[in-house]
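User: Hi! Is it possible to get a structure for several chains at once, not just one? Here's what I have:
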Amino acid sequence: MNAARKLSCLVLLAVCAAALAANWLAPAGYAKQFRDVPNAPASRQHLLGTDDIGRDRFARVLYGTRISLLLAPAAALVSTALAALVGGLAGYMGGIWLQMARGFTDLFLSLPWLFLLITVRALMPLNVSPLVSVLITFLVLGLLGWAASARVLSTSADAVRNSDFVLQARASGLHGPRLFLIHVLPNLKPVLYAQFWISIPVFILTEANLGILGLGVAEPLPSWGSLLRELEGLISFREQPWRLVPLLLLVVVMTSFQLLLSNEEVTA
Amino acid sequence: MSWKLSLWRTTQRLARKLTVIAALVLLGGLLSATLVRMAPGFDSDERELDPSLSSESVRALRLSRAGEHNVFSFYMNYLRGAIHGDLGISHALGQPVKTLLRERWPVTVRVVGVGLLLAWLLALSLAFATCLGRRPAYEIFGITTSGAFLCIPAAVLALLSVILDAPGYLAIALIVFPKIYRYSHNLLAKAYGLPHITAARARGLSEVRILAWHVLPVAGPQMIALAGISVSIALGASIPVEALCGLPGIGQLAWQAALSRDLPLLVNLTLLVTLVTLLANSGADVMIHMLRPREEA
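Assistant: Yes, the chains can be modeled jointly so their relative placement is included. Here is the combined structure:
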């Protein structure tokens, strides 16, 4: 592992640790309002100042990081499982099944991602409790983000199906789900891991986009999307530079993922 | 004779592509109609809450939606209307969807078109400079710049363009540029790394000649395919850019429709954008096919 990847790993671990320790590190809860100091500048009491309704921005960044960094992997897990089911099975079965799966994934991939996402998100109720909105947002991401991974997995599963050891297993009388579970799926593990890790930064960015557009996690729960939405009221960078901290944190995390995954993307 | 055969094959391919597009759009439409029909709250109408309406009026309102209960009849009604140019009425804006599309489409075409052009210019200039310059500094600059833009959400780039008073098409260009740069740089680097290009350089061929005769034929087809895909990326980017920069285009309309759960409008928009994306990808595919026989000849 080179120095850049080690550093990225350390940064991600530090950010995750800070997010998980939000209960102890944050000076207040994410929804606690300091009504006498709304829009306060950065100070010793409020490290990143307070927002329009007096909530501590530092606390919201910590809790928001926790939500985004915990739920993006959960959504990635859902999408990878779906990709394994659609792509892996189609590649294993081959023939018309593989062609049909590829046609379906191509149709899915030809839809502009954000258009599809906001359409499906709008089909779900918008006026729901914050917790339900978190679940809906990340579930929609997980359920719609499987197509690219499925395309890669179908190709890999097709290659495994035609490999010598699978042919030998078939000749020995192994068929159906047993052959898939014992010989095909374990050989798809590296691709599945790669697809899982690649999906995480994609989902983090997408949640941020949805949050800024007002279609993500509902208030008062914070997420990177809802925190970045605050940039909308910014007139200049010099005026309140601490408001850029969520963006900087997101860029640092995304850069760490990029450095960590540069090899995975090539393998996938 | 050969050109007639080539024309015939291209026409055949084009016809096949158009059939596939029509089938996909119809299938996509059915899927969308099913989703709309099954969405929570589809069967309720806000007007029913109006206390001034009599029970007969409420019954009449419910009767008017009776044909929409079956998803197939709902879709067939929609299709019948679409064939006659009636795409329905937007619930939120109270205007015919067709009128809204006609008004908004030119803005998106302009913003996405200029943004795409800028993105391609930026990406190709940087990719060629990196491959031709063969200096680590260019490579590092290209990777860092594209990497930085890949790390920033599209909506943040749109917000930054508002704060810096930059035009919307610049935000679209900066959203699309890193993806085009990364892919085209890889393609060009692979093409320039081929042994026959090293041999051509050793023989003293000019860089322009190497590019035109040896690099573009190798990297060109995939670049054209990338051009098709970049249309889809730019159309997706148009949602945050138009919504946050206040540009009255299709992207802003989709955002407004999503916020107000204007499902008929949203489905029409998604279908329209899918159709454009499919046409762009198929156009790229046909172009690649048209270029191939000439290379072989």
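Chain A touches chain B through 37 residues (CB under 8 Å). Chain A has one domain: 3-267.

User: Great, thank you!
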